[in-house]
Design a protein that fits this description.
- By secondary structure, this protein is an alpha/beta fold.
- It is built from 8 helices and 10 strands.
- α2 crosses α3.
- The mean pLDDT is 96.
Length: 236
């Protein structure tokens, strides 16, 4: 029987990336749910075998400007209570944190570009262990507190909670492992206003994507594949 994967997408170019083939190869039928276009009901995210909540350039606290956020957080909360496999990436991780009652707010500085993490002891025992001192792609300005009952897996100087897990099957990553370097130009175009406001030159980020992106892609691919494989093992 085919398994179902629902990916919540906030902007078109921040899609599953290299996660798509990995998820598909493990027998999942993938469907996108476009936030702000497709509505969130209380049970929207409850049914699928796997839910992946992707990134986007808004904050979970901007509910006045983007009213769908309230119903999305409620849908994520209902999903988490099922204990079924869930992955949150960047905004998706912040949605998970908010759904679990943790505060999400602007951090002291934007983190944009490739830089390493510091793994916690729990992180070094998790599927993130292969990241070690490898750089990963950061693209966020908001930070979240660690939700109650969750384990912190990674941090940076400006972001104390870069990754957390509620259970091994429910993982939140503030950073991006799914981004395909070959498609990174879409990020530079889509986020041009943010880059300009942050005083960042797209040529520098393009060069990072060219020089470190391919190696990081392979490490990230391995981490994501290991996490997906762990779901099958847990369900066996």
């Amino acid at each position: 029987m085919t398994k179902s994967c629902l990916a919540v997408r906030h902007v078109a170019f921040e899609d599953l990336g290299l996660l798509g083939p990995l998820v598909g190869a493990r027998g999942y039928d993938i469907r996108y749910h476009d936030a702000g276009i497709d509505s969130f009901e209380a049970d929207t995210l409850v049914g699928p075998d796997l839910v992946i909540v992707l990134g986007g350039p808004i904050g979970v606290y901007e509910t006045d400007a983007y009213p769908f956020i309230t119903s999305e957080i409620a849908a994520v909360a209902a999903r988490l209570q099922t204990d079924k496999p869930t992955l949150g990436i960047c905004l998706g991780a912040q949605m998970m944190a908010a759904a679990l009652g943790a505060r999400v707010a602007p951090g002291p500085a934007k983190e944009i570009g490739w830089a390493p993490l510091t793994l916690s002891e729990a992180g070094r025992r998790s599927v993130l262990a292969p990241l070690g001192a490898s750089p990963v792609l950061h693209w966020h300005g908001d930070n979240c507190e660690l939700p109650a009952g969750c384990k912190s897996l990674a941090s940076t100087a400006h972001c104390p909670v870069q990754a957390f897990a509620r259970t091994p099957a429910q993982l939140a990553l503030q950073f991006h492992l799914e981004t395909e370097p070959a498609r990174f130009e879409a990020w530079l175009v889509g986020h041009t206003v943010e880059l300009n406001k942050a005083g960042l030159d797209p040529r520098d980020l393009r060069e990072q994507a060219r020089t470190v992106g391919p190696a990081v892609r392979e490490i990230g691919r391995g981490v994501l594949a290991s996490w997906l494989d762990s779901l099958a093992g847990a369900a066996a």
